[in-house]
């Protein structure tokens, strides 16, 4: 689960869009549509990149602290930042049987919400229905996996950063392009498979306030197993092509019906690569946060995502 320090105020001026889902919840999102003066594709053919925040985060902070909006202007896609379920600005996604938070406890149908969101975007902007991609971090990465696994008819591919995985809730059956990004020193969603991982939120608060909090744990599939699960339906060859992208070493099968690439960041932690640290350095709360998630690795994820999918 992505750690967010409660004391840090994460806000950005943005227009909020919302609708009421069949379960009676008001669900919202933020969106960035490239201006008509840009070199972007005509609105009726624009692809969509839906960016899912980590557990305990929110869409506003993702919009503020990443460069997806700038990349959307450059490459001509609509960047969308949905909100999970929770209180104040601390939201989660019902991603798998053990993660996470209020969304899991209340059995929220987040896949249905994301599908409805795509329908709403199609009504408002037209969009290219064949190029709707998901990007997620941590709990949001597992949510992206679940949505793609359950609804490959709606979503064309996914990029998952520090994903704990699906924990058996869904097995990929259709070949889809998937980009897996993971640091080997991730304390929150381990790079290697573990039956119990997580607990970052509680460890950060324990360090901050000097209390012993019982961690909320969940299982982690492991980065290689996640990549393999998405490669299985692609008839991927065993011979690999490797490349270096900034701090990451990336590998994909030489031949496959859809590319699945694992980008490993040696020594990388749980922080979203290239992200702006969402707190003021030097403060105890911020240092407790960074001690758990690590420093953001040097990797331009929006650029990598745009080149991989578009």
Give structural notes.
The protein is of the alpha/beta class. Helix content is 28%, strand content 23%. The chain is built from nine helices and 14 strands. The strands form three sheets. The protein has a ten-stranded mixed β-sheet, with helices on both faces. The protein is globular and about 55 Å long. It starts with 15 loop residues before the first strand and ends with a helix. The model is unreliable at 1-14 (pLDDT under 50).
Short synopsis of the structure:
28% of the residues lie in helices and 23% in strands. The protein is of the alpha/beta class and 310 residues long.
Q: Please give the order of strands in the largest beta sheet.
A: 1-2-4-3-7-8-9-14-13-12
Give the CA-based shape. globular
N-to-C SSE string, H for helix and E for strand = EEEHHEEEHHEHEEEHEHEEEHH
Distance between the termini: 28 Å
How many distinct helices?
A: 9
Count of distinct strands: 14
> How much of the sequence is in beta strands?
15-25%
| Assembly classification | single chain
Radius of gyration using CA atoms only: 18 Å
Write down the overall mean pLDDT: 90
Largest sheet: 10 strands, mixed
Helix content: 25-40%
Low-confidence stretches: 1-14
Structural class: alpha/beta
